[in-house]
């Protein structure tokens, strides 16, 4: 291929001006409604576009508006400004009220992730009912993480992007009070030298159950 | 959350509520640890400075009370009671140097840690739920997905496919119109085609039967069909002036040859 | 109610500044699932807001952006800019081979056009299904030609420009002939028969069928 050809080819794929890229980004964010990553955005944009740069401009443009560009994990989404929520009473979705057990289980997974079922039970002092985890899984707020490299290779739970999106968190690091909990040593798993008796048998059972039921899915 | 209320300074109310809770809401406790946490609140101190000994006593009193009220306690409450009784004795008696395992203080410290951790998790859970939530405080776009996921089926065929298709039709071994697509029928068209190819060589009178196609003489049905069509084709060729045909008498063999001179 | 009361009420419900009204309007337009009228918007806005005026400003603000405020009847909605619609299409193209019946039918039409259905059937030796012709029509590879000036006035099929474009032909005459097919090794054994015997009655029959079925559509 000659030099002339090269030049021609380049000009064929020249990226649109940044202002246009910003428009495109805006349209895509608007259209998808679910958080979308820069990589996914770039896959939709014409060749040569820089989604990250366009995003900087777009976020600036929406600063202080009624609609906001929010970050969810490594993805972005458009959401109405929080202070205007009261205008959207009709749009409010009545979510099934979560049980206290479900809320606590969710918090434990979020703050201790990856968390095994045994760990959740140890913290709460009661066994976790299957229904609780099922409900959280169904809400797409938790998912299975990697198996722990401890005897029995128990499955773990982690929170999802859906969880972050729902609670308006950019990342799990933004969980309220995370720093304080950590500095207070409350997120460490201390060896429980058989302190509380009721866990022992129960824990094992739950793990065996997990291993049997999900080994195909999460063995890695 | 209800627990947070207890930490306010209206202790009398909180105490009253807690006392009530102990009796009435036994089933409402989420396990012994939850009960211990509730009991610990009556100590009105930082959970790290809690008197585990006192807590153990309270718990055991609670269990006794429940028994006297004939409340059925789940097994794990009783197991916890036994363990706390053991812990209490450990904390009260001077440590036995011959005994292995953690000291009473270590066990007590761990219990305090567990209570503090559970309390902390409840607090952050409450903070988490108090956050602005999607669909309640902030909203995603209301209109349904605009991204179209179109599944487009395109059919392709190359010129080669086309030509091969055509060639396939035109070279079909026994090509015949489908209405005549019967194995044992030799059509007049076929016979005509065949005769046209043969008459060039028919200089001498030859029997009609000698013009029948090969393989059509054995089966009577095929023989009949081939004879009839060959005869009809012969007549056609006579009509066209390509052939002469003769028969000496009724049922005598029919003979034919190429017409060399135009008909008079 | 006295005048004084009126004044007091008005001041109590003083409308938010226009910029704020515009933010509110924006959030509402974004969150609602259907286009919304000014009247409905005003019912959601705090007392004293002027949705129409805020709308003017909001439309101006979105002018030229990737998202547009569009009017739908007497209602408004946010939509992605029309010129960016292509970014929102996720097309999965599935390519399928044309069926043998379709290829053969197409080939016959191409080589024999204009061809009646009866002729196609005669050449293929089997009847042509309606679906096959429909498919070819839909692909825009064949179209209806003039009716034949034979009894029954059967419709004919001819190939289209789309056909020529797809197969890279300038005209139907560019289709390779039988001789070329043979020399290219595409035709194997026997030479083609001369004239194809036409079955008189059959053709008529099929044509009558055609006429009955399509007379409304193709009578010219």
What do you see in this structure?
- The complex is a heterotrimer, with two copies of chain A (220 residues) and one copy of chain B (264 residues).
- Chain A is mostly helical and 220 residues long.
- Helix content of chain A is 48%, strand content 10%.
- Chain A contains ten helices and six strands; from the N terminus they run ααβααββαβααββααα.
- Chain A has helices at residues 3-12, 18-32, 38-44, 51-62, 100-112, 117-124, 130-138, 161-166, 178-183, 199-218; strands spanning 36-37, 67-72, 75-80, 115-116, 142-144, 156-159.
- Chain A has a three-stranded antiparallel beta sheet. A three-stranded antiparallel beta sheet of chain A has the order 4-6-5.
- In chain A, strand 2 (67-72) and strand 3 (75-80) form a beta hairpin.
- In chain A, helix 6 (117-124) runs antiparallel to helix 10.
- Chain A is elongated and about 60 Å long.
- The model of chain A is unreliable at 1-11 and 198-220 (pLDDT under 50).
- Chain B has 264 residues and is mainly alpha-helical.
- Chain B contains nine helices and four strands.
- In chain B, strands 2-4-3 form a three-stranded antiparallel beta sheet.
- In chain B, a hairpin with a 6-residue loop joins strand 3 (243-247) and strand 4.
- In chain B, helix 3 (31-41) packs across helix 6 (104-130) and helix 4 crosses helix 5.
- The longest helix of chain B has 27 residues, at 104-130.
- Chain B is rod-shaped.
- Strand 1 (148-156) of chain B pairs parallel with strand 4 of chain C, so a sheet runs across the interface.
